[in-house]
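[User]
Um, tokens okay?
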Amino acid sequence: MTSTPSSNSASRDRNSPAPSSRTSVDADTADVPTTSIPTAYVSDKADDSSKLRTFLSILRKPETFISIGDSNDALGRMLAVLRFWFTKDLKYVKGKPCKPYNSALGEFFRCNWEVEDKSPSIVGDGPKLSASGEIDTDHRTVRVSYLTEQTSHHPPVSAFWVDCPVKGISACGFDQLSAKFTGTTVRVTPGAHNLGIFINIQHRDNEEYRLTHPAAQLAGILRGSLSITVADTCYITCPKSRIKVILHYLEEGWLGKAQNRVSGVVFHYDPDNDTTTRIKDVSEKDVLARLDGCWQDQVRYTLKDSKDSQLLIDLNPLWPTPKIIPPENQQLPTESRRFWHGVTEAILNKQYGQATKVKQDLEERQREKATARKDNGVEFEPRFFTQALMSNGKPELNEEGRRALKALQENNFHLEENAETGTEGTIARLQEEESST
């Protein structure tokens, strides 16, 4: 591994949407990644060990994320949001779900993607330009950065932020899940603090979209072969454009075979009187488009007054885009991959007793830290976010969080350990003062 990129290389990256470093994936070998980046490596598909990294499923194809604001038509942008929405679960379309580690308080994860800006506008014209309108990004490589931190332990909640400043688009939210056993399955629903994904398009007058999550069923526990089905309704809203989407994921077929069907409607709504929650209650005069398909295969849309359906997304040829993570020598002790390294290594070597011991040691250290905070009257403070929880469901980056994301955009993975600042530093100073008196 080499050191952090020099300031000169960082400067070159800031002046171009197409970073000099490139990440590629061989389409003939599915999602086996290759990279020419000397200062980082691309993780493989089997390393999503921490709960913090399960959120990455919403960015399995960042290409669809960066193109959301391209169209000059509001309906086109909403359809682009939908195209992104149906790629977020690509991990489960192409693979099987697995139980992640339970994230520790203060644990964090960060990564980049470098993707080609080539997804076409769906409805309406729109040149592929940077947010400033000064740089042509068409078929050029654009960098997307991601930062998440476990900000609360009771309840277990993590805050996340996704940023692509070149395209002027960002996303944020709180990740919290609630699970309930129902016979032979587990019903997974968004937790009380998980109010959805919030997407902001800066160069569209800060147009904001809220995407809520449907409930899912995790089956096959007794058989040891896990699978996911979805049977619920979720919503996408944009108050500025006054456009809303209702998506209805259908139940299994009567013979028990999952159909994975989804239907939906895109329509004009009143943000100040948003009472429509069912597709059948949408007035025909407000309808802009209808959707139908299989969320694990193809989804099509039909515009109002048209009989011809158009392809929105075909998931069959798509594979998750590899992510770029910091090299091992630049990961901090609370960074997910390094934090769980001992457990992961033992599992991969089939040393399950050792894995349990290492996991228990990690958990005991976390309990000791919690006890020390309680004894010293210190509240945990997130490193990258202003608060552990926000009532509106939208986390806010603090100054250090903004610096960390800016560094990621410059391909700079260096972070200082915060041993003398924040919660742990406060405890250390209090203990030192107590011992000196």
Notes: The CA atoms of residues 34 and 79 lie 32 Å apart.
